[in-house]
Amino acid sequence: MLETRQVTEHHPQLGEFGYAGDDHVVPFEVAPLDVRGRTVQLGPMLDAILGRHEYPEPVARLLAEACVLTVLFGTALKFEGKFILQTRTDGPVDMLVADFSTPSALRAYARFDPDRLEALTAAGEISQQTLLGNGVLALTIDQGAHTQRYQGIVQLDGETLEEAARTYFRQSEQIPTDLRLSVAKLVTPGIGGPREQWRAGGLLAQFLPQSPERMRVPDISGGDGDPRDEVHDPVDNSWQELLALLGTIEPTELIDPTVGAERLLYRLFHEHGVRVFGGVPVADQCSCSREKIRGILEGFSAQEIKDSTEDGGIHVACEFCSTQYDFDPAEFAAAQ
Fold this sequence. Notes:
One of its GO terms (cellular component) is cytoplasm. GO terms for molecular function: protein folding chaperone; unfolded protein binding. The strands form three sheets. Strands 1, 2, 3, 9, 10, 11 and 12 form a seven-stranded antiparallel β-sheet that branches. A six-stranded mixed β-sheet has the order 8-7-4-5-6-13, with helices on one face. Strands 14-15 form a two-stranded antiparallel sheet. The chain has two domains: about 25-185 and about 195-210 and about 235-285, Hsp33 domain (3-Layer(bab) Sandwich); about 290-330, no CATH class. By secondary structure, it is α+β, with helices and mostly antiparallel strands. A hairpin with a 3-residue loop joins strand 5 and strand 6. The protein has helices at about 45-50, 55-75, 115-120, 130, 160-175, 210-215, 235-245, 250-255, 260-270, 290-300, 300-310, and strands at about 5, 25-30, 35-40, 80-90, 95-100, 105-110, 135-140, 150-155, 175-190, 195-205, 275, 280, 285, 315, 325. The termini are far apart. It is built from eleven helices and 15 strands.
């Protein structure tokens, strides 16, 4: 059973409650508004993922947002499986991939064209829209072998990842949903001099009333046409109040470690009372292994093994975690 903590006006300092801290997704419920959601601050885990690849700053910021979205979505899964976020676009950053394997493993990487990125930077035209260009955002839920994947596709034509995520919920889930994302590189003092650390945060809230008459949202599109041509937010006062409250969030509040998830939720919802559940940890953990890669190579033909051999060996690097696996081609000779 989930640990619960009731945050009310009588506990403005949250002194008697623990904090989930970095790299924990914190579910919450605001019963008077019929709102449920999750919030997270990513710290050391995100810094490790971005640091091992040494991405240029604009690319790192994009991938950080993808990581926040992925953990907010992935930790909602109620079964053993995987949530995958992937973009395919014609921009300088033509691919972002982040996947979350239950209960806690996140991995991510980005693919980009250094020359196009440099040209964009020199022209002073760096933005999410110019980095991504046109293409699609695919959100996939995979429940494992012998099950059918569920995939939602959203067009990325001049939209940010945050805007595309809202479009996904309007078209695919048809649940009134809003979210906020923030990414920053913090500079902290250290013995060897200042140190830069990546941080990111996000909050996702959904309108989930129990009564049928409040659940009816006639303006939500079923997926036909351009959803941006319609008004999608329900007129229910509770949902409109929620949108107004989320509009007061400062980007720094989502990533500031001195605020934290619980204090932010108190700031937003103390007038209504907010129920905060135990944090769900997320970890920088790749699913690659020597055994998995060996299994793939064992399926190669003799010619493919030969073509894969360089300097007397086969060298395979994981795109996610950058771990390199080295094999002797002779290991696969008997299988040919």
